[in-house]
Amino acid sequence: MSRKNNPDILEFEGEVKKLLPGTMFEVELENNGVKVKLLCILAGKLKQHFIKLTVGDRVTVEVSKYDMAKGRITYRLKNKKSYTPNSAQPIKSRGPNRKK
Description:
The protein is mainly beta. It contains one helix and five strands, in the order βββαββ. The chain has a single domain (9-79), classed as CATH 2.40.50.140. 5% of the residues lie in helices and 46% in strands. A hairpin with a 3-residue loop joins strand 1 (9-20) and strand 2 (24-31).
């Protein structure tokens, strides 16, 4: 059964607050001004493709409605704060005609 169509799985966006041993993370979800901390593990595809997470990363978390204290990180969202194209430095040429 697909997880997207499963009514028992709830999906939220959150932020990684703490790294724990064994690929576990403490993730903070914010829903209507209420902040909730969950203990989360990595989903299989994130482990398979060696996706690394650090503190401050925005993630998508799946939570079972039967156990709201634990979740599973399924996706790392693009962090708009870390990269802006306008602030990038131009790459200087390293060719033979480069002036010193």
